[in-house]
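It is worth pausing here to work through a concrete case rather than discussing structure prediction in the abstract. The textbook approach is simple: state the sequence, then state the predicted structure, then interpret. We follow exactly that order.
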Amino acid sequence: MERGIVMKLSVCMDALYRGRDFKESVNELKEIGYDTIEFWSWWQKDVDVVAEAVAEAGVSISTFCTKFTSLVDPAQRNAYLEGLIESIAVAKRLNCTQLITQVGQELEGVPREAQAQSLIEGLRACVPILEKEGITLLVEPLNTRVNHQGYFLASSEEAFYIIKQVGSPFVKILFDIYHQQITEGNVIANIRENIAWIGHFHAAGNPGRHELDNGELNYEQIFKAIDETGFEGHMGLEYFPLEAPPVGLRKLLK
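Step two, the predicted structure:
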């Protein structure tokens, strides 16, 4: 995909380089021309190895996940906050200022409004911690049609409503273009209308979640629309490559 625009790109190691040696993969990315990475769960990695790899290669970390504890279940709120504090300590060590959070599975037999309120209150409880530490929490809606059946938060409209209720610049949305294309489409308009509440993007082709030029999404136009909003964050490349990772990654740097 040729693009005459400049967008900061972040490569998701757990998607493009899953099963590969972390340090070797980071060095390969640097040689290709990338200077930013991200990943999923820090607790399944040797944080010492991660720190050494990024320091030696001279790359930065845009974001990674906080502990996967439900925010829609108020009984788990204290555990969520404990996991957040633990994750922030790792973020500080890795010079990372954003953490991705999922919200949990929908609870059976509990009114949806009650779960949404728990999510709002749980995020509000995070704000003082986030403000003190200078960390932004990225709430991620996921599609429930293909990949994440039973997950509570799918629509961007509901996600943006929740973020507005929280009302903090330290809590934003991770807008995953792949997930939102499956959930609702209307990607460019939704991005333009809500860019103030978006802190990070993820991108993958649809269907299949492969390279960006594989599928129905016109990423050249999507990237252009995001650039025009003045967005200064990263576009996370979170796809499962059909070809060797460098092939698709080099295309995106043209």
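Step three, interpretation. The longest strand covers residues 36-41. The chain has a mean pLDDT of 96.
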